[in-house]
Amino acid sequence: MDLIDDGTNGNTPEFSVSELSGAVKRVIEGEFGFVRVRGEVGRVSRPRSGHVYLDLKDDRSVISGVMWKGVASRLQTQPEEGMEVVATGRLTTFPGQSKYQIVLEDIRPAGAGALMAMLEKRKAALAAEGLFDAGRKKPLPYLPEIIGVVTSPSGAVIRDILHRLRDRFPRKVLIWPVAVQGAACAPEVARAIEGFNRFQPGGTLPRPDLLIVARGGGSVEDLWGFNEEVVARAAAASHIPLISAVGHETDTTLIDFVSDRRAPTPSAAAELAVPVRMELAAQIRDFGARMTRAMGLRVEHRGQRLRDLARALPRPEELVEGPRQRLDVMGDRLPAALTRAVDRQRLRLTETVGSLRPAILRRAVSVERGRMDERSARLGPALARAVKVRRDTLEARAARLSPRAILRDIGTGRERLDRLSQRLDAAQAARIQDTRQRLEALARLAETLSYRATLERGFAVVWSDSGVVTSRAAADEATGLEVEFSDGRMKLGGAAPARRKAKRKPPEQGSLF
What we know:
By secondary structure, the chain is α/β, with parallel strands linked by helices. It contains 14 helices and 14 strands. The protein is 51% helix and 17% strand. InterPro entries: Exonuc_VII_L, Exonuc_VII_lsu_C, OB-fold_nuc-bd_dom.
């Protein structure tokens, strides 16, 4: 009869929780050290630590995944919820929660279809915010002074742009070097656009009048950095007009929808940025010739009109014939008119002289003298009354004047002057006392800091011709020495000749010291 061990006896080994969790961990990691999983990204969490926590799921199961900070920073395409991806990593357990998870080493979209689906989702979200509206797009300057270019400094794109600008209309160009693909592309392009917008007009680096974001052609993955939301929002927030020239004519990225103008190629962006200088010069010459012809035709037309009007005017002789005839007639009538006027004036004078009589003059003089005497008699009393009124007024005002108010003001002012004098004396005395105390404190401090107080304690100072001697070498080189005590100085004899310093033996070859 066989005995069945149901665990109630002591033959079954016992494990601690940690030992059992470690054993499970070793088994899972040994069997699934490297796996590739295809699924849909579920919940995505990005804490401040920089790590990324997400779920990979299909229609029946869910696996938790973790991506460490270093791996997440190297990803070209960041995972988003709803994206179909292929993840590579190793399966492990997390004993703290009794769960298994996959530690991701790489995660990529599952084909171009997943990328395009994510792109359409971003495009719909940005369009709903109004970032694609035509009303918010800024017009490009006709002839910018400075053009800022955001691209790779080592590619053919910048050479094409510079060559095209040189052929059409040379302008100053500021280049902001960025990575045009890879994980660093999106943040560097966004920082470049924001950096150009932070330039101040008139600063060390002048603010561009126009921006060009350019990159050559490539696959969807190569151009994906320009589909990132951070790049689209930076382009939409740019206060400087921006031209996007990413890829070839058939390539379309998010920055093309939010930019103020899209160019099919980088060379086309340079053509949109500036006009053709030779065409402008030819157009100016054409305008000048047209203006010269128009002015000539206008002058000729005005001259012909002036000649037509001149033919309608009468001759100068005809204009003066009538006035000349009237002048002759009036000249003939003038002597007779003067004679009649003199006769009329003589008649009036005769009538006036006839009406003048001496008796009439004497009577008029008598009447005027009587009126003058009457007014003279009335003038004396009137002056006396006016003088009396003025004198009464003056006496009334003099009676109202009293020196008491003036004396009261003088007394008040003298009291104020006395108080101010007392305050001034007290303040001056306090200031003098304060200055005396400060002076005494400084004197005590100077006496404390003086080396003479040290001499009083039994020390001495050795002097030479060049000053205080502080070393034996200086004493050997001095020609004469003096020792200063607290009660005076004493000269010493000549110093012993300076001892020659022994030459230091050079180190042997191969020695470190």
